[in-house]
Structure formats: structure tokens, C-alpha cells
Amino acid sequence: MKKSVYSICGMCTVRCPIRVEVEDNKVTWIEGNPHLLDSALCAKGSAGVALVNDDERPRQPLIREGGRGAGRWQKVSWPTAYDYIAERLKKIKADYGPESVVLSSRGGPWQSMYKTFIHAFGSPNYTNHDCTCGRNTHHASLSLNGVGRKGFIYDIKNAKHLVCFGRNYFASLQIAQSNQVLDMLDKGGRLTYVDVRQTMTGIKATRFFQVRPGTDYALTLGMIHEIIKRGLYDKEFIDRYVSGFDELCSFIEEYTPAWAAKECGVKEKAIKEFVDEVAEDMPRVIFHPGWNLSRYKDSFYASRALHILNVLMGNIEIEGGLIIPKGAGDCGFSGIRNLDCPKPDIKRGDGVGWKYTHFDKGPGLAHLFFDAMRTEDPYPIKAWIAMRHDPFACMPDPQRQKLYFDNCDLLVSIDTHYSEFGWYADVILPESTYLERDNPICLQKGTKPRLAVRRKALEPRFDTKPGWEIFRQLAERLDIGEYFPYNTIEELYEWQLEGTGYTIEDFEEKGFIELTDKPLPLYDRDKLDGQFKTPSGKIEIISSKLEEAGLPSLKPYKSPNKPPKGMFRLVYGRSAVHTHSHTINNPLLEELMPENTLWINHRAAAKLGIEDGDMVEVTAQNASYSGTVQAHVTEFIHPECVYTVHGFGRQVPLQSRAYHAGISDQKLMAGLLDNWDRAGGAINLCEALVFVKKSSRNPKRRVEL
Ligand SMILES: Nc1nc2c(c(=O)[nH]1)N[C@H]1C(S)=C(S)[C@@H](COP(=O)(O)OP(=O)(O)OC[C@H]3O[C@@H](n4cnc5c(=O)[nH]c(N)nc54)[C@H](O)[C@@H]3O)O[C@H]1N2
Ligand SMILES: Nc1nc2c(c(=O)[nH]1)N[C@H]1C(S)=C(S)[C@@H](COP(=O)(O)OP(=O)(O)OC[C@H]3O[C@@H](n4cnc5c(=O)[nH]c(N)nc54)[C@H](O)[C@@H]3O)O[C@H]1N2
Ligand code: SF4
Ligand SMILES: [Mo]
Fold it and tell me: In this protein, which residues make up the domain named 4Fe-4S Mo/W bis-MGD-type (predicted)?
């Protein structure tokens, strides 16, 4: 039997809308939802078929038999696994209090389910991956604009100039936005790209600055200086909505383009020419504040400076600028119901909200729980449930993380794959893949808000379950079932849509429900008061929250250290055909890119006797990890750093394609678990140094035994 199902892609967390064709319970075709994406899809999205067909994933619940990480598993039924977890959670709650349990997830539109679970259990400790992703950018925006990183939509299509600092749009994909960048270029728009190496985005750019690693802040300060000196800012907008502009003017006095050029290794003339272009294009100039953001000690301030540049452009709430997302309320729609439970009034174990008051309390900061595990201050952490989150692949130094996690009595992984963390955990609950499961309905904000839903395209191949069922089953056993008021997904949909006038059948025509026909009009620019949720209600160049926390709002620039002789700074990024670490074993994507390489500057390589294609040995600063990989010798990378694609070097033996393929950047990031940004909250992932030498190992042996 043939059918066509509208759903939401799950091959990465961009969650593009898709249409899936299925015949006899087999996927025959996947494309982007033609109503929204013109059928476009990336390679990873197409490889969803291979994900379903892959046998090298957990096929039923597993309980650990041997030591942690030994790989000896007992196959158990779902009720046995639920009972096992519930029993242990109850004991931990009785012995140490409910707050000793942490639940981490990948955030996103379904997080209310995970938050409800952990809050109803009695713990405030919900967290997510973001301390290794967008937290610095998020906090930078929060401190300036009073809204987080999702507080603006970038109207790239209508912009005249997009400026990206390491926001590598054509490898680190978001299909809709990447297409918008192409549309903008087609219309004659300009793209300025800044990176320490040349990239897919850099080669399409109209201007490319190759900077010395870690000097973005200097370049942004030089740009601000020139823009202010030439009076190229929106005075009216600043007078009306911005505080601290005078302090900014005095602060940037010393940071001239000539100074910035020296610091970054670019030409002063090029910075000035760039500003000439900005003068022509403003206000339709967007400075992308970064997503993952290359992360050095001062990247929070670099991102803050990029947000400030947007404010100077006066590009907020204009076409081709930064648009405030419109929600259900703007369409006169009262919204859908989501699972909910108030957060228990207990201090968070990571210190966010009481020790660190300037951070967003929502998901806190995952890496700060390690301290609590080690010191039992403010209280012991005894269990960790990782739902679609792989702490060992996501945070630096898994070798050290294991020491801390060993203080826990229960580690649970809810995952579609064997994650590195899952392989070390006590229980693996295999979630059905996104093509084999339904998810709750979600509201997508934007210029055209809509309701969207992921629908099951085919029956699960193995004994796996959807998240909504896993959490309901666990909740029932923990006596918090009332927070999950449904038995089937249909009942959940009905409950979510109650009172809206819509039914789940209304999603069948296009896969989503549009809450408005036309894009909602922009807000009146004279009436933006109330949109900036800072303590003063203004865009705060001098942030009262930062100042209260004893942190400067405008931090004097400090030049990054040069790596010592024989060492390189390790930088990382994405490939267009992989998602972090979880597609490395995908049979189709593995074929496209089976291993990563080490990019190294041609002159630096020559000094070490390394030629393109040679095998090189890359070793962590404290020698805790070393891997062998092919060198990609190129002039298009700064000589102070080497670069690799994140996600490789996996060590789960049951993943035969990914096992020891390539090197792991996070395992090379020795010592970085405590190297985090006090202002931005995120881990300084780019502060890792590595040794590189030509390998004397047998290049034909990929797996070092
Ligand atoms: N060294 C280094 N560290 C990094 C990065 C880097 O480039 N270098 N990148 C950082 C960034 S930007 C991010 S966002 C994080 C990402 O960090 P994570 O979110 O932890 O990584 P992922 O590999 O995307 O996915 C986590 C887990 O989710 C599982 N998963 C995938 N789909 C599903 C599903 O449908 N259901 C369930 N239950 N599980 C699923 C995967 O199998 C995987 O084990 O890593 C960060 N850490
Ligand atoms: N194909 C694919 N697309 C993805 C993802 C994926 O896994 N695969 N993940 C998604 C996620 S979760 C995220 S967070 C985004 C991340 O997407 P982006 O934020 O665009 O970032 P990265 O891919 O992490 O790329 C980081 C870039 O920073 C550069 N860099 C290093 N040091 C410096 C420096 O000092 N200055 C500057 N200017 N650049 C520097 C690196 O060379 C690299 O090119 O991608 C998303 N899209
Ligand atoms: S960017 Fe690709 S993998 Fe990610 S959701 Fe979209 S189609 Fe899927
Ligand atoms: Mo990310």
C-alpha cells in the first residue's frame, strides 16, 4: 500500500518540514514539504531512509550487565526497563531528594514534555546542550536586547548585505535560511564572510576576511569605531530605544580600523571599504550574531558587538533586517495546550539563577553540574537522564566526564542510536526514529506563525517506542501520571487542540496549519516600547544585569595567546553531509564522508614535513587522547590553527562504520570542561591546543589496536 505523509525531518534539529512516500511500510521517497520548501532537502534529510534501515542501532531496551562502558547488555522488555528506572529513581529521591536527578535534552519545540517530567518528579534540574551551542549568542542578546537569540528573525532574503562571522551557512545548514542567502545573492545582495579558513560560504561571499584565530572581537570593534566616527548609525532609533551609546563612543575611541587590521591580520583598507559598502546598504545590513559561534575567551563580547552593530544599523523591525517573531496571539489565536508542571522552588544544582544571576534560568548550563557531582555542593547529583543528548560527544573531555558520572547511581540514555554516553550508561531506551513515530503538535513562531506536527510515516522496524509514550509510562510508575493526561497520541492531539476549533485531520492537507494567510505586518517602529525586555526596557549597551554580576558590558580587548611552538589551536565545524556525531554511522552518509581530515596550513605543514594526504597524529595537550588522520594541507587556513569536522572518532564497537573512523575533536579538548565563559556561560571550545606530527603508524590501518 502506498501513502504520502507530511512530517518534520529529524536528521538534525533544524526540523525542516518534509513529505514522505511510503510503500508497504518502506520509505520510498523523502522531500522537503513542497508548500514550504519547494521540495528542497539536504543530503542528511534524504538519508533518513538509511537511518530507518540501519540495523546498527539499539533494537530493544537494554540494561547494563558488566561494568560501565564494557558493552555487556541484557535485552529486556519495555515494562522491565521502565520498572528498573522507576525503582532506582524512587530510591534516589528517598535517599538524596528529587533535585539529585538531572534530565538533559536537545531543547526544541518538544521540551515541555521533558521539563514536565523532571519538574513533576520534583527536580528543577532540566538542562540542554546549549552550553556547547548557542548560549553565548543567546546571553549576549539577552543582556543587550532583553530577548534571547531566537528573539529576532533574520530577514535575509530582503537584506542588501549579510555579514557572517563563522556562520557557515552553506555547510552548517538550515535549508530555508541557506536558500534565502542564495536568493539575496541572486538579487545583487552582498555577503561578507569572516573565518580563519576558507569555507563553502566564504567562496560564495562578495568579501572574505581571513582572520587570526580568536580576533573577531577586535574586528567588530574596528568596525564599530569606523561606523560611529563616520556617523553611519541610526540616530533616531538610538535616541529612542537605546541606552549607553555615549559610553560606547568613548569605549571604541582607541579601537581604530588600523589597530584592528594589525590584530586580525587583515588590511585596514579592506575594513574601510567594507564600511563604505555598509554605508550604501544600511539599514538593510544584517550582522549575524553567530549560532554555535567560534568560541574563544571573549566570544560573548564578539557576539555582543555584533548585536550592537545591528542596533547601530537601526535594522530592527524593518524589511531586510531583524524582525520580531510573531506568535499565535498576533493572529488572534489563543494557542494550543502543552504539557506543563511548575518548576519546583529549589535552587538549581548548576548554580544558575542564584549563584549566577545574569543567565537564563530555563535550561541552565549542563557543564556546571559536574562540579556539583564532584563536591556535592549545593547537593549531590545522583542520576542523569539524557534524552536526545550525548554529553560525551557534545562536551569536551569525555574521559574526565566519566569520572564525575561515576558518582551517579543511574545513567539513562533515551536515544535512537547508541550514543557514546548511552554506551556508558546503565539503561538504553531506544526511541523510534523520527520516521517511525509521532510527536506532539508544536507552534512555530515567525512572520507567518503556524502549527506543525511530526507524523509517523511507517511502523517501527524494531521494538522501539516514541518519546510521548516513554515519558507517560515512566510518569505513571513514579506517581506523576496526572501530568501526562493521555493514553494514545490521538488523545494527546485532541487535548492539545481543545478549544482551538482545529482537529488533527486539518494537518493532512499540507502538514501544517497556517494561523494567517499573509505575513503579519511589522510592528510600528514608533511603538516598540515593551519589546526589549531588559530591566530598563531599553536596548542596554551597558547592561544592568552584567554590571550587577560584576561583569563589564564593554570589555577591553585582550589579544589571544599564540600557541607555543609545535602546537596548534584546534578549531572545528560542520560538514554539509553530517549532523554532529549521530550520522557518522549512517550507511549513506558514511559513504559520502567516511572520515574527517586535519586541515593544516601549507607552510606550517612544510615545517613539520607533512604533505597533503599524509597520515598525521594529533594529540591532546595532556596526551589523554591521540588519533591518526589524513592531513589536508592547504593555504586556506591560518597557520596558528588546525581544523577538523566535529563528530568523528567514535568508539561504540557496535557501530562498525563509525568505529574509530577519524578523530574526535571533543576528546582532544583536554582540560576544557572547566574553561567556560563567566559572561556568556558557554564552554570555550576553541581554547584547545593540540600537538601535530607526521604519523609513523601504518596508514592503511584505520583502527589502532
Ligand atoms: N568538540 C565539539 N563539541 C561540540 C560541537 C563541536 O562542533 N565540537 N558542537 C556543539 C553543538 S553546536 C551542538 S548543537 C552539540 C550537539 O550535541 P548533541 O545534541 O548531544 O549531539 P547530537 O549528535 O546532535 O545528538 C545527540 C543524540 O541525539 C540522538 N538522537 C538523534 N535523533 C534522535 C531522536 O529522534 N530521538 C532521540 N531520543 N535521540 C535522537 C543522537 O543519536 C545522539 O546520540 O554539540 C556541541 N559540542
Ligand atoms: N550540515 C549540518 N548543518 C548543521 C549542523 C550539523 O551538524 N550539520 N548543526 C547545526 C547546529 S546545532 C549549529 S549550532 C550550527 C552551527 O553552525 P555555525 O555557527 O555556522 O558554525 P560551525 O559549523 O560550528 O562553524 C564554525 C566556523 O567557525 C570558524 N572559526 C574558527 N575560529 C574562528 C575565529 O576565530 N573567527 C571566525 N570568524 N571564525 C572562526 C571555523 O573555521 C568554522 O568554519 O549548524 C547547524 N547546521
Ligand atoms: S537541514 Fe537537512 S537534516 Fe536538518 S532538518 Fe533540514 S533537511 Fe533535515
Ligand atoms: Mo548547535
Answer: 2-56
